[in-house]
Amino acid sequence: MVHPIQAGLSNLPPSLREAAYVLGKSPRTTLFRVLLPNIKPSLLTGIVLAFAHTIGEFGVVLMIGGNIPGQTKVAAIAVYDAVESMNYPVANTYSLVLFALTFVILLLVYLSNGGYFKSWWP
Amino acid sequence: MMDIFVEKTLRAPGGELTLRVKEHLPAHQLVGLFGKSGAGKTSLLRTLAGLLQPEAGKIVVDGATWLYTAAGINRPPQERQVGLVFQDYALFPNMTVRENLAFALARGQDPRIVTDLVELCELGNLQHQRPTHLSGGQQQRVALARALVQRPRLLLLDEPLSALDLEMRQKLQQYLLRVHREYQLTTILISHDPAELCQLVDTVWVLADGKIIARERPLVYFATPPPAVPWQLKGKIVTLVPQQNGALVVMQLGDEQVQVWANPALAATFTPGEWVDIHLEAQHIQLKKTDHQP
């Protein structure tokens, strides 16, 4: 999340921030009204990458209560459990679902950042 | 009225450079800042705006101290009432032209000034467009209008017209003059173009290696000796004084009046109040007593 936003901010011309300061705007107003709205693609990338990373999270969830029977279970652990119990068809299905989900999400992000949807929502 | 003293060490491509400027600027003046690249022009402007911190300095504007390093006073850019037009215009891409102007409003300020400025800078047709869809000249007008929203005490222009073609530049020079007079501003303009400075400014400050080496009326500084490369200026005819064989055309050029003789046929086509192009070229004719009579 941090890296794409940091890159987005450092790619903005410094004159935008300075122009807002000279117009009497506080650093806070400048951040929310000028800087963040101008790095929307980076924000979206940051959010989605964080999400895509989390959806496949395994180690931490396994250690800290992410696997309460009948209540919580994440996809990666479901795959792990299925493999452990030699239930390969189920593991394959779960993997395919995970793959399709992350693929579609990333595809949407790149299409959106590439301006593909601009023709529908100008 | 403004008193400036700033001292700042700058890192220039050819080593270190000390910017040391001590000047007095009377109110409602339009001053041009002229000098080579790297002489410290932009740095001086940024220091005045509060975007660059000098090592030592004192800036007093109309009795208000903006900067006084000895007393630990250093007002941030937000509290300086400065209008700054950046070289790259720095328009906010996420806002329309009108939103750019409205964003500049101070808290509680009467929003009618936005409409006034849209009219003054002829932005009516463009006001709902995003800056990325505008041409350079249009962006320049938006940047100028936005800098004026808060009615600044000091207007700073960093080469605002350098990226434009001659026709657009001459048109925008008239905007600048109109805005400067209508809003009774004190203005500092950076420019590399002697013709532009002659057209616009009352005084030119020549900056070299961080020091101001000359402060002079632009026509006096640039036109003596006459320029080697022809210049094209625009002047407004004030009056025509009939002479025996032609007429003396008196023109207003910035704050100066210039007189040029015209033959009867040419003079007959002119009327006072009309704009004319003035071509200026080196034409040195000198008479000397000769030692050899042929």
Question: What labels would you give this structure?
Answer:
heterodimer; A: 122 residues; mainly alpha; 7 helices; B: 294 residues; alpha/beta; 6-stranded mixed β-sheet; 5-stranded antiparallel β-sheet; 8 helices; 34% strand; globular
User: What kind of oligomer do you see?
Assistant: heterodimer
Overall form of chain A: elongated
Question: Major sheet of chain B, described briefly?
Answer: 6 strands, mixed
| SSE string of chain B | EEEHEEEEHHHEHEHEEHEEEHE
Morphology of chain B = globular
Write the element-wise H/E pattern of chain A from the N-terminal end onward: HHHHHHH
- Catalogue the unreliable spans of chain A: none
| Cα separation of the termini of chain A | 27 Å
The largest interface is: A-B, 16 and 24 residues
Strand content of chain B: 25-35%
What is the average of the pLDDT values of chain A?
A: 86
Instruction: Please bin the fraction of helical residues of chain B.
Output: 10-25%
In terms of structural class, how would the helical and strand content of chain B be classed?
Answer: alpha/beta
> Which percent bin holds the helix content of chain A?
55-70%
Radius of gyration of chain B: 22 Å
Average per-residue pLDDT of chain B, rounded, comes to 87
Brief overview:
The complex is a heterodimer of chains A (about 120) and B (about 290). Chain A is mainly alpha-helical.
